[in-house]
Amino acid sequence: MRVFVTGGTGLIGSAVVAELLDNGHTVLALARSDASAQAIEAAGADPLRGALADLNTLRTGAARADGVIHLAFDHDFSSPDTLAKSVAEEGAALAALGEELVGSDRPFVAVSGTPAVPGRASVESDPVPTDGPVGGRGRAVTSVLGLSSRGVRSSAVRLPRTVHNQGSGGFAGLLTNIARRTGVSGYPGDGAQRWPAVHALDAAVLFRLALEQGEAGTSWHAVADEGDKVRDIATVIGRRLGLPVESVPAETFGPLGQIFASDQPSSSAYTRQALSWEPKHPSLLEDLENIQP
């Protein structure tokens, strides 16, 4: 299968591209810079120059492929305005890709996030939130899944709060960056809230399985660790960086503070059973031992 991939040079995307190539697929990947194009070529894929905002380029990539995996997102969480801009940009991109695929029966795998459900771990049948700081992402991926009624084998791989590799990535990576900047390895509240996690290489396998096997309109959970306490995550970060570990105000984490403070464990039991997906790489707490002081 020839697969068009957006976000193919990021932490997750580079792993997905390698996973696809290692399993007999060919890849056409969006490249927004010369450096990205070179990285894509070095990986063994073909670059398509353009940015996520270039909707005509996205349509061209989808038209030239047997399937699409969308991963690109501008992770600028510095202010509510920049976050809103990133969410709107992604929504427009998903709509353009989806329209190009209507009536083709080709697979379209979109990235999403695991939802938070009060009192229990979320499961694949739970809806994603459509309000709050990133509610627009939930509305966009819900529209993608709705394309299943228009001749698109659309599905969503829901990523947990931390997708990691070699101690970096995701919410835990943001905690690390903030700790380096502030001199405190902080956590909101009492730190008992739980975050799910997955290694990037395990997530990449699930994206491939969803592309190859996922039925139209389905959602899958790329969750290896159902929920690590944020205090435990911060403790490892503090030890690796030689910094004190303390509770800090949620405002420390900017527009994501509300999300950082919520308890949001998630299960992947159905995904593992239905797609025979089994995570094999280090857990988050193990992987954080790779953080360099």
Task: Describe the overall structure.
Helix content is 41%, strand content 20%. It contains eleven helices and twelve strands. The chain is globular, with a radius of gyration of 18 Å. It starts with a strand and ends in a 6-residue tail after the last helix. The protein has helices at 11-22, 34-43, 55-63, 80-101, 135-146, 170-182, 200-213, 230-241, 257-260, 269-275, 284-287, and strands at residues 2-6, 26-31, 46-49, 67-70, 107-113, 153-159, 162-164, 185-188, 194-199, 218-221, 225-229, 245-248. It has 293 residues and is an alpha/beta fold. The strands form three sheets. A seven-stranded parallel β-sheet has the order 3-2-1-4-5-6-10, sandwiched between helices. The protein has two domains: 2-160 and 199-223, 3-Layer(aba) Sandwich (Rossmann fold); 163-196 and 226-290, UDP-galactose 4-epimerase, domain 1. Helix 1 links the parallel strand 1 and strand 2 (26-31). The model has no long low-confidence stretch (mean pLDDT 95). 48% of the residues are buried. Residues 118-137 are annotated as: Disordered. It comes from Streptomyces cynarae. This is SDR family oxidoreductase. It holds the Pfam family Epimerase.
